[in-house]
User: Fold this.
Amino acid sequence: MFSNEVKQQQMADILALSPVLPVVVIHELSHAVPVARALVAGGITSIEVTLRTPVALEAIQAITAEVDNMVVGAGTVRDGDQLRAAHAAGARFAVSPGASPSLLGAASLGELPLLPGVATAGEVMHLYERGYRYMKLFPAVPLGGQKLLAAWASPLPQVQFCPTGGITPDNAVDFLALPNVKCVGGSWLIPKEKLYAGDWSGMEQLAREAAALRRAQEHHSLKVQGEGD
Ligand code: 3PG
Assistant:
């Protein structure tokens, strides 16, 4: 059994790496390393590779082995077997769309920090009781987006979120300005057309713009605080 405090601290450090956690579905193994290199070149040093394709675990392995400075996580983890397979492939963290008892049981026995998905205040409270301090709000925009998270900030102040699902470059700053948002997740940094065109410099540019959201986040938070004074 690995200490929950250690895993929560690891998750905090991972979510602090970038204002945006890119979510990617890799169909062609040959895309994995160039995508990760493009993101790192643009200043984004974390990535969630979803376990939705047959090559996902190999993609995690390849990025882990070949791309310095990239922290790779496994996304769409739904059970203990996937969690263990992701860890064996070299993933440094796991993300799930929701939380089942068996997944949570496997996560508490294993070493890999898990960012579990939530959609209701009850789920947040349940996971908080189990020691989780970082959760993914999924699917963020359909559930209520910034308004939902703003409403949770006061009654559920001990939890920080990575909202994912429907986040865009246009609404990301508003999410990032919320006190209970650590970072946002999104697939927009890796558009399919750029992936299949091998447009790595285009992805690097999208990553650079996403990394710059950190400065916008700080500026926006200060402005909001100033207006409240
Ligand atoms: C997903 O599960 O695919 C993520 O939530 C990404 O959502 P997005 O495509 O709306 O960014």
Remarks:
- The chain has twelve helices and nine strands.
